[in-house]
Amino acid sequence: MMAAADSGKTSALYVDRRLENGDAGGLKKNVDDDGREKRTGSLVTASAHIITAVIGSGVLSLGWAIAQLGWVVGPSVLVAFSVITYFTSTLLADCYRSPGPDNGRRNYTYTDVVRSHLGGLKVTLCGLAQYTNLVGVTVGYTITASISMVAVKKSNCYHKEGHGADCSVSNYPYMMIFAAVQILLSQIPNFHKLSWLSILAAVMSFAYSSIGLALSVARIIGNHMNHHEVKTSITGVTVGVDVTGAEKVWRSFQAIGDIAFAYAYSTVLIEIQDTLRSHPPENKVMKKASLIGVTTTTVFYILCGSMGYAAFGNKAPGNFLTGFGFYEPFWLVDFANVCIAIHLVGAYQVFCQPIFNVVESKCNKKWKDSRFVTVDHEVRIPFLGAYTINMFRLVWRTTYVIVTALIAMIFPFFNDFLGLIGAVSFYPLTVFFPIEMHIAQAKIPKYSFTWIWLKILSWTCLIVSLVAAAGSIQGLASDVKTYKPFKAQ
């Protein structure tokens, strides 16, 4: 196996030398303009990656978010964030190559893009914001997936024992199951091999969103037929009836933070774009994929949020599938929660692959003579064919998954902390850096009309992010006070 790996490594070097000499012949067909393996991504796979990254189980909590903001402000905030996210994603897509968007040099990560266009301290700030967000998301997904798996167990318990039964179940075993699955999937070498998983995850996200939407519509019809009045309003929850004045303010801030985080996929946009084939141009395909992804998710967000609010009114639960807004039909609720768990399995990989890539790239450069780090071993798996295993990749990725699972077990309220991470990272990654890089790339004159309105947009989003962060901090403080470790939920 070692010899085979060394032979493959020599062949790769041979291909590179032939390319450098301009004599690649037929082998040139198998590599891109940067000498790397030919990219095969398309509009379909990029759209699937985006939908997988954007639509999370948080879509099922949008009924609660709209309940805090009301019929006017709630959907308006959703639309506003979708427009801002799409606009800045088009700016970021043009920055994949530098100095020009069409024929410039490729940048493989968000940090590389910032380094090429801005440089200096901004590169460090970008890396800090991006990778803190990515680690936070993977920890949060471990928690959220376990909640969905626990919900299946609870659903069957409630169906058998009654809705008032004590059906407490510990999340910890399910966190370990989720981590075990991720250890296996994390051995997928890179983003380029993840298309099938993202497509599966995107299908799952449509499935559970549609089930949540259908159950909400069924509840609305049931409320109407039974003359059961559900209280909703233009301004959302009522001060003095549903909440205090202070709670109304903090909850509104939290709702804005939830919506802002729901659209933040800029952390993986460059990595997704790096999977696309060269023709048609990557930036044009990525813009179309962003439009498809953001439009699709916005339609689902508004439908699920509005129908969820109409079904439950001002008493909308935080998540009406895992929070048991619905108990029956229990089998459909079970299926929806299984879909959530499967979706998060794929979403975890979409967000952790950039972390894997940056660590492995740095280690390969630093220890390029280490066989442990650089050598791939070929293993033949029955019915699946040959597969290459890199020992460093195996150890490092397994360790990462175990650490994120341990953090999730120690701090199960970390999912609420995720809202804070999202609020803090939304502004720099989704708004600030794309706008600043566009200004630098397009050489937009200072104080020109375009420069001024781009800056106004940037500062407005900063204020919104600070407000959302304040709401998240208040919610986190409240969770910490009521947190009881090692108690089954």
From TrEMBL:
The chain crosses the membrane at residues 46-67, 73-96, 169-188, 194-218, 289-310, 330-351, 394-411, 417-435, 456-477. One of its GO terms (molecular function) is symporter activity. This is Amino acid transporter transmembrane domain-containing protein. One of its GO terms (biological process) is amino acid transport. Pfam families: Aa_trans. Residues 40-476 form the Amino acid transporter transmembrane domain. It is found in: Cell membrane. Keywords: Amino-acid transport, Cell membrane, Membrane, Symport, Transmembrane, Transmembrane helix, Transport. Its main location: membrane. InterPro entries: AA_transpt_TM. GO terms for cellular component: plasma membrane. Belongs to the amino acid/polyamine transporter 2 family. Amino acid/auxin permease (AAAP) (TC 2.A.18.2) subfamily. It comes from the Eukaryota.
